[in-house]
Amino acid sequence: MQQKLYWTDAMDARIKRMRGTGASWDLIAAALHLARWTVIQRGRLIGAALPPAVFVPEPVDDDREALPAGHLVSWGAMNAGTVLAGVAWPARP
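-> C-alpha cells emitted (93 positions)
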C-alpha cells in the first residue's frame, strides 16, 4: 500500500522556484524524486506557473490613418470570441 505524501513548505517553494525559472514538470519531478503527475497536481494547487512570455509590442505608426467604422481588422478584433465573431459589419443605408 502506498504511503501518504506530506507536502512541506520547502517542497512547495522548490516547485514554485523551479517552475518560475521555466523548468519543466519532468525536471521538477526528477529533482523531488516524485511522479510527474503528482508534482503537476501540487503545482497547480499552489499556483506554480510558468512566467509570462516576453511581450514585444508592435511599433506604433503615428502617421497611420484611422480605420473606418466596420473595417475588417477593427471589427474582427473587437468581436473575436463573441457571438458576432465572423459576422460582417452591419451596413446601414
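Residues 9-46 form one domain.
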